[in-house]
Amino acid sequence: MTARAAATVVLAAFALGGCDDQIKHLDQRTPFFNTMSWQPSVEAFEERARAPVPGTMPIDGERTYDLLAADTMLVSPISGTEADLARGAELYSQFCTPCHGVTGAGDGSVVGQNRIPDIPLLNIRGELTRGYTDGYIWGMIANGRGLMPPYRRIPAMDRWYLVAYVRQLQAEAMAEEAAAAEAAAAEAAAAEAAAEAEAGEIPGAGGGL
Ligand code: HEC
User: Whole-prediction pTM value?
Assistant: First the structure.
């Protein structure tokens, strides 16, 4: 075989070796063809991911607080501006309404038979929940409790917006209760006045309200 014939073979190898894979096989036989694609590195998924050293924290990690720690150690870092409440309302409608309902009364769409049981604790606008600290409610969202699942996937800051919004729902409930009490008092006064009129000077003049 002449040098010319040998050159033809090499050129043919090049022509066929357009594909990276073929070059890979070729360079294993002839180190002369070493390319970047063949190297003694570990390929993706070739090895199991290594477990981090115990105690390692992600650089964007956040400290976790259980319910008790959140209750006693944490204070809300936000003041509840309009923007805070708007964010809270958005998150609330995404994460909380199915169980706690739009107003927090505990009448969400998944509450009922064979689903989330209709228990009084689902009402988060009432006296009981009003009495909790902001930290407790924040911790409640993070950790869950009883039948409520944990929502740690909601970032820490977003949980504070939710707390502010829950406080707003409670304030609305209190305003409604005050208005209802006022209406009841007015109705009682009117009934009393009507009774007085009926028993009064002109018999039969009362009766109506
Ligand atoms: C899957 C249904 C479900 C969802 C969704 C849910 N909760 Fe709850 N939540 C519950 C249940 C059930 C309880 C009562 C827990 C118990 O049994 O101790 C509860 C209790 C609570 C309480 C304490 C009430 C009290 O007075 O003890 C708060 C506060 C609360 N939830 C806030 C939220 C917020 C805020 C969200 C949205 C991020 C949310 N929950 C989403 C089911 C849910």
Answer: 0.72
